[in-house]
Write a structure and sequence with these properties.
Length: 318
């Protein structure tokens, strides 16, 4: 079998393996109602399943790069093997003294250029798609603080709230009456706002006392800044991440295609409690979003005065 036939077979095999393995290795997590939970799982070796078109394009681009680098690695190892076997001292005692080969030199110059062009075209298209914010159905301002997030729905009459990580004590097998009462109050508020009949599945170090709520299949624009040091807002399943910089406004957008709960964490070192700034986004139907807005405006308007007490309850001492 000629070399080009072998290369064609290897290329087809690698491409098929990557395209088949990528969705199989992505493990989807769901709750008891069958809704998506955007969270990492133990021994995960691939991206979280995409929940936006942005993430779908990122995964597609990643798979393309994986094919290219795998084929390049195989090609280089094959050439090394040929050199080792065919041109060692025993097999080739009288080496060639050829110093130039125009065709070969042009080939090894053009091949990397063509590979980079193949990578650059979809890369620039993806960057353009990510950075071009479409007309937004929902606009949210996110402000990073040490060490919690503040959110404001800018087109909803100043609806705003803080989002703090729930402490470890809320996930202990045994807890004091005071802790149990605090936990019940916060979980009860989440259930009330989202009209849940049962307590939602909750994850240690990822759960917050309040959640961003957005409608499914709607363009959401997030305006991001910070009040103290640099933070970073991200949801892996959405394929979005942006720095929150004091005195500067950055923005991103997403359009979640599946109802569910999606988790992220601050992704920029921001101090001693950097690891304890989770982000929770609840994606709901249009009807549930409209109902949430009504309940949220009533609840958070009543809680403004007690906000400092609430923050003290959910933030353990450093």
């Amino acid at each position: 079998m000629k070399f080009h036939k072998i290369l064609a077979v290897v290329t087809a095999a690698v491409t098929t393996a990557v395209m088949l393995a990528s969705p199989l290795l992505a493990q989807t997590v769901t709750n008891s109602d069958g809704e998506r939970i955007g969270v990492a799982v133990e021994k995960q070796i691939n991206f979280q399943p995409a929940a936006t078109e942005i993430m779908e394009r990122i995964i597609s681009f990643h798979d393309l790069l994986l094919i290219i680098i795998t084929l390049t690695t195989i090609f280089v190892f094959v050439l090394l093997g040929i050199v080792i076997v065919k041109f060692n001292r025993k097999a080739n005692p009288t080496p060639s003294k050829t110093s130039h080969n125009v065709i070969l030199e042009v080939a090894w110059t053009l091949a990397p250029v063509l590979i980079l062009i193949v990578i650059a075209i979809p890369s620039f298209k993806l960057l353009y798609y990510q950075d071009t914010v479409p007309d937004a159905d929902v606009v949210i301002k996110a402000t990073g603080n040490q060490w919690y997030w503040s959110y404001e729905y800018t087109e909803e009459g100043g609806l705003s709230f803080d989002s703090n990580m729930l402490p470890d004590s809320y996930f202990a097998d045994e807890m004091t009456e005071d802790v149990a009462a605090e936990r019940a109050m916060i979980v009860g508020e989440i259930q009330h706002l989202l009209d849940m009949d049962e307590e939602p599945q909750m994850y240690r170090l990822l759960e917050t006392d309040t959640r961003i709520v957005v409608p499914v299949n709607k363009n959401v624009k997030l305006v991001v800044t910070a009040s103290d040091v640099i933070h970073a807002w991200t949801i892996p399943a959405f394929g979005v991440k942006v720095d929150a910089v004091p005195g500067r406004i950055n923005e991103l957008w997403f359009n979640a295609t599946e109802i569910g709960t999606y988790y992220g964490q601050c992704s920029e070192l921001c101090g001693i409690r950097h690891a304890f700034m989770p982000i929770v986004v609840q994606v709901v139907s249009d009807e549930d979003y409209a109902a949430w807005l009504v309940r949220a405006k009533d609840m958070y308007a009543e809680n403004v005065v007690d906000n400092a007490v609430r923050m003290a309850a959910v933030q353990p001492a450093s």
